[in-house]
Automatic annotation (TrEMBL):
Annotated spans, Disordered: 77-101
Domain SAM-dependent MTase RsmB/NOP-type: 1-120
Entry protein name: rRNA small subunit methyltransferase B
Catalytic machinery residues: C43 (nucleophile)
Natural source organism: Pseudokineococcus marinus
């Protein structure tokens, strides 16, 4: 855990992180067999590294986006309030979705993002 990292980043750093995250997710999806599930997890709250990366993977096809908030709720044995992401995966507007975003002020964690993708082909 490196909580100080957020203070060492510059806005210009973001331009290289989205493509890197896309490559990492594509590699993970290529490595898992059909029917396997990849958990895409970041400690970033920025849509360019979270919902945008997942949206692009889903648009490329051969993956199904699973309901991550439901999995978190089941694992916690009680609802985890406020895990819906700040933006909708499809539109980029405010709203919920099938991904989960955890926040320091709401969940007592770092700003963690979770998406679960099942390879379908």
């Amino acid at each position: 855990r490196r909580p100080e990292a957020r203070w060492r980043r510059q806005p210009s750093d973001l331009s290289g992180l989205g493509p890197l995250q896309r490559d990492l997710l594509a590699s993970a999806l290529a490595a898992v067999r059909v029917g396997g599930v990849v958990a895409y997890v970041t400690c970033s709250p920025h849509p360019a590294e979270t919902v945008a990366v997942v949206r692009d993977a889903v648009r490329r096809g051969a993956v199904e986006l699973l309901d991550a908030p439901a999995v978190l709720d089941a694992a916690a044995l009680s609802p985890v309030p406020g895990t819906a992401p700040p933006v909708d995966e499809g539109t980029g507007r405010d709203g919920g979705g099938r991904t989960a975003q955890l926040w320091p002020h709401a969940h007592g964690t770092d700003a963690m993002f979770l998406a679960l993708l099942r390879r379908t082909a």
